[in-house]
User: Which sequence fits this backbone?
Protein backbone atom coordinates (compact mmCIF):
# COMPACT_ATOMS: atom_id res chain seq x y z
CA UNK A 1 0.00 0.00 0.00
CA UNK A 2 1.33 3.39 -0.90
CA UNK A 3 2.01 5.76 2.01
CA UNK A 4 -0.33 8.38 0.53
CA UNK A 5 -3.15 5.86 0.71
CA UNK A 6 -2.18 4.39 4.07
CA UNK A 7 -1.66 7.67 5.92
CA UNK A 8 -5.28 8.88 5.73
CA UNK A 9 -6.48 5.44 6.86
CA UNK A 10 -4.11 5.45 9.81
CA UNK A 11 -5.13 8.96 10.79
CA UNK A 12 -8.83 8.06 10.58
CA UNK A 13 -8.26 5.03 12.81
CA UNK A 14 -6.41 7.18 15.33
CA UNK A 15 -9.20 9.77 15.41
CA UNK A 16 -11.73 7.02 16.17
CA UNK A 17 -9.52 5.38 18.81
CA UNK A 18 -8.64 8.58 20.68
CA UNK A 19 -12.14 9.35 22.02
CA UNK A 20 -12.50 5.75 23.22
CA UNK A 21 -9.12 5.85 24.95
CA UNK A 22 -9.91 9.26 26.42
CA UNK A 23 -13.28 8.08 27.72
CA UNK A 24 -11.77 4.97 29.25
CA UNK A 25 -9.14 7.19 30.89
CA UNK A 26 -11.92 9.40 32.29
CA UNK A 27 -13.64 6.32 33.76
CA UNK A 28 -10.36 5.31 35.39
CA UNK A 29 -9.72 8.81 36.72
CA UNK A 30 -13.24 9.01 38.18
CA UNK A 31 -12.60 5.61 39.79
CA UNK A 32 -15.52 3.95 38.02
CA UNK A 33 -13.19 0.99 37.64
CA UNK A 34 -13.35 0.40 41.39
CA UNK A 35 -16.73 -1.28 40.75
CA UNK A 36 -16.86 -1.86 36.97
CA UNK A 37 -14.72 -3.53 34.32
CA UNK A 38 -15.17 -3.75 30.57
CA UNK A 39 -15.50 -7.53 30.32
CA UNK A 40 -16.36 -8.92 33.74
CA UNK A 41 -18.81 -8.31 36.55
CA UNK A 42 -17.25 -6.88 39.66
CA UNK A 43 -19.29 -5.03 42.26
CA UNK A 44 -21.33 -3.64 39.38
CA UNK A 45 -22.02 -5.01 35.92
CA UNK A 46 -19.43 -5.22 33.16
CA UNK A 47 -19.60 -2.28 30.80
CA UNK A 48 -20.26 -4.69 27.92
CA UNK A 49 -23.34 -6.00 29.80
CA UNK A 50 -24.59 -2.44 30.19
CA UNK A 51 -24.04 -1.78 26.49
CA UNK A 52 -25.93 -4.95 25.55
CA UNK A 53 -28.84 -4.20 27.88
CA UNK A 54 -29.35 -0.67 26.54
CA UNK A 55 -28.43 -1.24 22.86
CA UNK A 56 -30.93 0.59 20.66
CA UNK A 57 -32.49 2.49 23.58
CA UNK A 58 -32.39 6.19 22.64
CA UNK A 59 -33.18 7.18 26.23
CA UNK A 60 -30.25 5.19 27.65
CA UNK A 61 -27.67 8.03 27.84
CA UNK A 62 -29.97 10.25 29.92
CA UNK A 63 -31.19 7.34 32.06
CA UNK A 64 -27.67 6.17 32.77
CA UNK A 65 -26.51 9.70 33.59
CA UNK A 66 -29.37 9.99 36.08
CA UNK A 67 -28.43 6.61 37.56
CA UNK A 68 -24.82 7.70 38.00
CA UNK A 69 -25.82 11.02 39.58
CA UNK A 70 -28.60 9.67 41.84
CA UNK A 71 -27.29 6.18 42.52
CA UNK A 72 -29.69 3.29 42.80
CA UNK A 73 -30.03 -0.44 42.97
CA UNK A 74 -31.96 -3.50 42.08
CA UNK A 75 -31.27 -3.48 38.34
CA UNK A 76 -28.01 -5.45 38.43
CA UNK A 77 -28.15 -7.07 41.85
CA UNK A 78 -28.41 -6.32 45.53
CA UNK A 79 -25.44 -3.96 45.91
CA UNK A 80 -26.63 -0.38 45.35
CA UNK A 81 -24.66 2.07 43.26
CA UNK A 82 -23.62 5.13 45.21
CA UNK A 83 -24.47 8.56 43.78
CA UNK A 84 -21.63 10.29 41.94
CA UNK A 85 -21.96 14.10 41.96
CA UNK A 86 -20.48 16.44 39.39
CA UNK A 87 -17.43 17.11 41.58
CA UNK A 88 -16.47 13.43 41.13
CA UNK A 89 -17.09 13.31 37.36
CA UNK A 90 -18.16 16.41 35.42
CA UNK A 91 -21.17 16.42 33.11
CA UNK A 92 -19.17 16.38 29.86
CA UNK A 93 -16.88 13.65 31.13
CA UNK A 94 -19.90 11.63 32.26
CA UNK A 95 -21.48 11.96 28.80
CA UNK A 96 -18.23 10.82 27.19
CA UNK A 97 -17.93 7.77 29.45
CA UNK A 98 -21.56 6.78 28.89
CA UNK A 99 -21.15 7.13 25.11
CA UNK A 100 -18.03 4.96 25.27
CA UNK A 101 -19.77 2.30 27.38
CA UNK A 102 -22.82 2.22 25.11
CA UNK A 103 -20.60 1.85 22.03
CA UNK A 104 -18.91 -1.29 23.35
CA UNK A 105 -19.66 -4.48 21.42
Assistant:
Amino acid sequence: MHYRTALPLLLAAAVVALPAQASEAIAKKARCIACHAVDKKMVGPAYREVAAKYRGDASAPARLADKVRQGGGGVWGQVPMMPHPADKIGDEDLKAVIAWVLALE
